[in-house]
Design brief:
The complex is a heterodimer of chains A (190) and B (417).
Chain A: H1 3-19, H2 32-61, H3 80-93, E1 99-103, H4 117-129, E2 133-139, E3 142-152, H5 156-164, E4 178-188
Antiparallel strand pairs in A: 1-4, 2-3, 3-4
Helix pairs in contact in A: 2-3
Chain B: H1 2-13, H2 49-66, H3 73-77, H4 82-87, H5 93-96, H6 118-121, H7 124-127, H8 155-160, H9 200-203, H10 208-212, H11 228-231, H12 236-244, H13 249-252, H14 278-282, H15 289-293, H16 295-298, H17 304-307, H18 313-323, H19 334-338, E1 341-344, E2 347-350, H20 363-367, H21 375-382, H22 385-389, H23 402-416
Antiparallel strand pairs in B: 1-2
């Protein structure tokens, strides 16, 4: 290939590259599942760290301060599940393009039981298998990509609190058990 | 849309009383004072639901956050509650609090049938057998549940305060500490206005010019009447709270200040034209908080509850504190309940929105009643409308079962275990 030919080819490619518009119909960027997995990685890490390094350490190991459901009244630490839910509510207020929640077949507050058909199926499967679950559902005329992840007991504080809570429907949890599930929803389509 | 458009047109084209003709219906007790400030709610012509919601939250958002709202909007924007939102769109205040519809509006500005809880809590009796057979129209009965503020009504709080006696052995409210800590008053060289010597301003070395100098240099140097804006230069939180209550909401909406003559409560005719600002209750120069705590209130308010105060046990205690026969903090003035002292960090401040702990009146339990009374007694007293009108002159004639239900459920669970 002569230098003249190379120059012509290079010029053509450059013009094509510079003038070509991206094909918006082709999939680009990250998929809903990648986004959900990434979000969950942050949530799971923050949740585990707060549970182990703050609540379990200060309450169960060093007896510095207790964690309480009524943390404000009792000047105590919020429970890990409350911390998680407060974050979810703040994200919801920001209309950030996704929502998330913490559900369980054995919730202290029964409003946090699986409710939609996909939640029931997915939470059941992650509790049984310990793996993730992905699906799509339509709620209120909006389609969602819904990702469901197992939520495991990572510290003694998780297990003792749920096993001893007066409203807990299950009282035989052990560390490592899947106690519930994190559900992330991302709206898809129009 | 046509109505909203007309309102928008009216906001632009009409001023002051001319707007009265545009009101689509009588406004609620909470909003009638500012009904001619259409733009307070209809922030723009053709205001949509979201913009209207922003206006609601702009005035009431802080109060809801402080109340730890049991049903925040974020609960209902969660897609998993879409089926519930389809039945009752609780994302928006106006779903339950429609304005300009007096024929459909009940207490607390509620414009829905009062059994709305069933939409989401139909199965409540499964978990709480004590609730079996109770009508959903009774959920929000006094002393049971509120949609927003349940800080004094949640189950564990009731259990924790079960068994309390009606009156605590030591019954006192918070004491403001700043007057006692004040330095000796500075010497006064000029002739001061009556009442100023010895006042909190004198003790704090606040000079005449600090209040009477015009804020805008372009204005004349001296301002005779001190506005709440000026007071707010130092008392920012108090003035902001004043603007959220019935006394200051017209001022806060840039309308002419409220006068007792415009009130829906019964007021003294001789006070009808008195414009309400900080000095109305605090009296210029003297700033006598003792007078502001009772005398200022009864100088205007002439409803049954207010008139009954003088003969109440609370008033006896107040007279005892004022005379010095009872210790500071043991008296109960109008302000004790309606402008309560609140611990804020290291300081004790006075809540200057006198409506902040009313409607529903259970809001008063934690901020006021529990200083002196047991929770059960307080719930019963506030649930007795006749007793409220008589200004708590006797024991409650109403018994609310909420504490019994809460402790009974706990006992039943312990028995099973």
């Amino acid at each position: 290939m002569t230098p003249r030919t190379l120059l012509a080819l290079g010029t053509t490619l450059c013009l094509l590259g510079c003038s070509a518009k991206p094909d918006i119909s082709a999939p680009t960027g990250i998929s809903p599942q990648q986004m959900a997995d990434a979000l969950h990685a942050v949530m799971e890490s923050d949740r585990a760290i707060y549970t182990k390094k703050v609540v379990n350490r200060l309450q169960n190991e060093e007896n510095v301060i207790k964690a309480s459901e009524h943390w404000k009244d009792e000047q105590a630490l919020p429970l890990p599940a409350q911390m998680f839910r407060m974050g979810a509510e703040m994200v919801a207020e920001k209309d950030a393009g996704f929502t998330y929640s913490l559900l369980s077949p054995w919730p202290v507050n029964k409003q946090n039981k699986p409710k939609t058909p996909l939640e029931s199926e997915g939470v059941g499967k992650v509790v049984e298998s310990g793996g993730n679950f992905y699906g799509e559902e339509t709620l209120g005329e909006q389609a969602y990509f819904t990702a469901i992840y197992p939520d495991k007991a990572v510290a003694p504080a998780c297990v003792t609190c749920h096993n001893e809570h007066k409203d807990s429907p299950r009282t035989d949890f052990n560390i490592g058990d899947v106690m519930g599930a994190v559900v992330i929803r991302i709206p898809v389509g129009s | 849309m046509t109505t909203v458009g007309l309102i928008g047109f009216g906001v632009v084209s009409f001023r002051g009383d001319q707007r009265t003709a545009l009101l689509p219906g009588e406004t609620t007790h909470g909003h009638y004072q500012i009904e001619l400030s259409c733009e307070s709610c209809h922030t723009a012509p053709f205001t949509g639901t979201d913009e209207m919601q922003d206006a609601c939250v702009g005035c009431h958002g802080d109060e809801l956050a402080a109340a730890e709202d049991s049903h925040p909007k974020s609960k209902f924007t969660d897609p998993r509650n879409a089926s519930r939102v389809a039945k009752l769109d609780a994302r928006y205040c106006v779903t339950c609090h429609a304005e300009h519809r007096p024929e459909a509006t009940a207490a607390m500005g509620l414009s829905l049938p009062d059994d709305y809880c069933y939409q989401c809590h139909l199965d409540v009796a499964e978990e709480r057998p004590t609730h079996k057979g109770l009508g959903f129209e009774t959920c929000a009965d006094a002393g049971c549940h509120n949609f927003h503020d349940n800080r004094a009504l949640y189950e564990d709080f009731l259990v924790a305060h079960s068994g309390e006696t009606p009156n605590h052995p030591v019954a006192t409210t918070l004491i403001r500490e700043w007057v006692a800590d004040a330095e000796p008053p500075p010497e006064v060289s000029a002739e001061p206005p009556a009442g100023w010597v010895g006042s909190a301003h004198h003790l704090s070395e606040i000079a005449c010019s600090d209040c009477h100098r015009a804020s805008n240099p372009a204005d004349a140097g001296w301002v005779g009447t001190v506005s709440p804006d000026k007071c707010g230069d130092c008392h920012e939180a108090e003035v902001a709270q004043f603007g959220r209550g019935r006394h200051g909401m017209r001022w806060a909406a840039d309308l002419a200040p409220m006068t007792p003559g415009e009130a829906r409560l019964t007021m003294r005719s001789e006070s009808a034209d008195r414009e309400l600002d900080c000095n109305t209750c605090h009296t210029s120069h003297r700033y006598d908080t003792e007078s502001a705590a009772v005398g200022a209130c009864l100088g205007c308010h002439e409803d049954e509850h207010s008139l009954a105060y003088a003969a109440s046990p609370h008033a006896d205690l107040w007279r005892g504190e004022v005379s010095g026969s009872l210790p500071p903090g043991s008296g109960v003035s109008c302000a004790t309940c309606h402008l309560p002292r609140v611990a804020s960090g290291e300081h004790i401040r006075v809540q200057h929105n006198q409506n902040a702990n009313l409607r529903p009146n259970e809001k008063m339990i934690r901020s006021v009643c529990v200083s002196c009374h047991g929770v059960g007694f307080s719930i019963d007293a506030l649930a007795d409308p006749a007793l409220v009108l008589r200004n708590f002159d006797a024991a409650p004639g109403v018994r609310v079962e909420s504490i019994t239900m809460a402790t009974g459920r706990l006992s039943e669970r312990e028995r099973i275990e």
